[in-house]
Amino acid sequence: MSTEVRVPTLGESVTEATVATWFKQPGDAVAVDEMLCELETDKVTVEVPSPVAGTLSEIVAAEGDTVGVDALLAQISEGEAASTKSDAPKADAKAEKAPEKVDQVDDSYKNDAAKTDSNRSDTEDAPSAKKLMAENNLSSDDVKGTGKDGRVMKGDVLDALSKPKDAPKAAPAAPRSSDQADREERVKMTRLRQTIARRLKEAQNTAAMLTTYNEVDMTAVMDLRNEYKDLFLKKHGVKLGFMSFFTKACVHALHEVPEVNAEIDGDHVVYKNYVNMGIAAGTPTGLVVPVINDADQMSFAAIEKAIAEKGAKARDGKLSMAEMQGGTFTISNGGVYGSLMSSPILNPPQSGILGMHTIQDRPMAINGQVVIRPMMYLALSYDHRIVDGKGAVTFLVRVKEALEDPRRLLMDL
């Protein structure tokens, strides 16, 4: 009996995907729910499990093929075991001549190591981990697996990538080649990277994008955070970071300048009476923007918990399509990478994005005296088609005021 493997539902408004990696080949035995392949969509990677146990008899959609929802991926013959592969080693073992006794004695000290290697070789790493290791030229030996029997999980690979690598040993200089191709590597862009490139270019082509700048003295926020961070962690179980302050400040400013929270739909402007805050996050596979719905109704603790949860999912590649849709405004924190100043690009169809940057001690003139203060540059990129310069500057000033005197957030000033 043959069972069809088809493309699952990919998410709202997503109609096609690219076959990224096949983990099994025709003739391989598969178990129920064992991963067969991975599909890449515009936003997420989707793993396709086997619906039945049997033998993969045919692959219909090869790696690199574009497939639609419910398209046929492969055929599985139910109940057929891959006997050829499992029996072959036994036959070879019987045919081999037994080694001399003296060799058995000499090699006996290797038994324990051989058993360990055998157990590790029988362990199947997570498909998403294997794909990520291949993309970053890593092997299972380079990653410490935390799964069952040392199985390497995707989180293990991400941990390995986040750690500084040892300096490579100097290798003998290879002769320079006259062929330019020998010094280049051509790698096909993932669907996520293609989508990022396309959407960023669309934002530049369709929106009348402009950026305005200001700077904020972070003294008050840092003092407040240092004073309450231990109590906050003890009560709410999550750390008090800067992002909740910036989210609250932006919500406050969006209420006063609603056009920054609006979007253009044809010849209409759609004003949103709610704030779904997008928080841009860098991952090993590219930039993603998880969305915190109804951030304007949330407390500091609820915002911090949501950011921590969505950030962990983003790093592990487990964000769903629904968690990245419906944003009305975005915050991008380039400061975590050391950026001093930049001009963020809009996330269509949104009309505004706030760029945060690194905090730097700088001399400031305050009340006629020069003092050292922790300063951050802020950048607001906006769609000038619906947001005037006055509105953009007002928005950024309100964010600055709220951060320099957080009590304004409590008093709604």
UniProtKB/TrEMBL annotation:
<dbReference type="Pfam" id="PF00364">
    <property type="entry name" value="Biotin_lipoyl"/>
</dbReference>
<dbReference type="InterPro" id="IPR023213">
    <property type="entry name" value="CAT-like_dom_sf"/>
</dbReference>
<comment type="function">
    <text>E2 component of the 2-oxoglutarate dehydrogenase (OGDH) complex which catalyzes the second step in the conversion of 2-oxoglutarate to succinyl-CoA and CO(2).</text>
</comment>
<dbReference type="InterPro" id="IPR050537">
    <property type="entry name" value="2-oxoacid_dehydrogenase"/>
</dbReference>
<dbReference type="Pfam" id="PF00198">
    <property type="entry name" value="2-oxoacid_dh"/>
</dbReference>
<dbReference type="InterPro" id="IPR011053">
    <property type="entry name" value="Single_hybrid_motif"/>
</dbReference>
<feature type="compositionally biased region" description="Basic and acidic residues">
    <location>
        <begin position="141"/>
        <end position="168"/>
    </location>
</feature>
<dbReference type="InterPro" id="IPR006255">
    <property type="entry name" value="SucB"/>
</dbReference>
<dbReference type="InterPro" id="IPR000089">
    <property type="entry name" value="Biotin_lipoyl"/>
</dbReference>
<dbReference type="InterPro" id="IPR004167">
    <property type="entry name" value="PSBD"/>
</dbReference>
<protein>
    <recommendedName>
        <fullName>Dihydrolipoyllysine-residue succinyltransferase component of 2-oxoglutarate dehydrogenase complex</fullName>
        <ecNumber>2.3.1.61</ecNumber>
    </recommendedName>
</protein>
<dbReference type="Pfam" id="PF02817">
    <property type="entry name" value="E3_binding"/>
</dbReference>
<keyword id="KW-0450">Lipoyl</keyword>
<dbReference type="InterPro" id="IPR036625">
    <property type="entry name" value="E3-bd_dom_sf"/>
</dbReference>
<feature type="domain" description="Lipoyl-binding">
    <location>
        <begin position="2"/>
        <end position="77"/>
    </location>
</feature>
<comment type="similarity">
    <text>Belongs to the 2-oxoacid dehydrogenase family.</text>
</comment>
<feature type="compositionally biased region" description="Basic and acidic residues">
    <location>
        <begin position="87"/>
        <end position="123"/>
    </location>
</feature>
<keyword id="KW-0816">Tricarboxylic acid cycle</keyword>
<feature type="compositionally biased region" description="Low complexity">
    <location>
        <begin position="169"/>
        <end position="178"/>
    </location>
</feature>
<keyword id="KW-0012">Acyltransferase</keyword>
<dbReference type="InterPro" id="IPR001078">
    <property type="entry name" value="2-oxoacid_DH_actylTfrase"/>
</dbReference>
<comment type="pathway">
    <text>Amino-acid degradation; L-lysine degradation via saccharopine pathway; glutaryl-CoA from L-lysine: step 6/6.</text>
</comment>
<feature type="domain" description="Peripheral subunit-binding (PSBD)">
    <location>
        <begin position="124"/>
        <end position="161"/>
    </location>
</feature>
<feature type="region of interest" description="Disordered">
    <location>
        <begin position="79"/>
        <end position="186"/>
    </location>
</feature>
<keyword id="KW-0808">Transferase</keyword>
<dbReference type="GO" id="GO:0004149">
    <property type="term" value="F:dihydrolipoyllysine-residue succinyltransferase activity"/>
</dbReference>
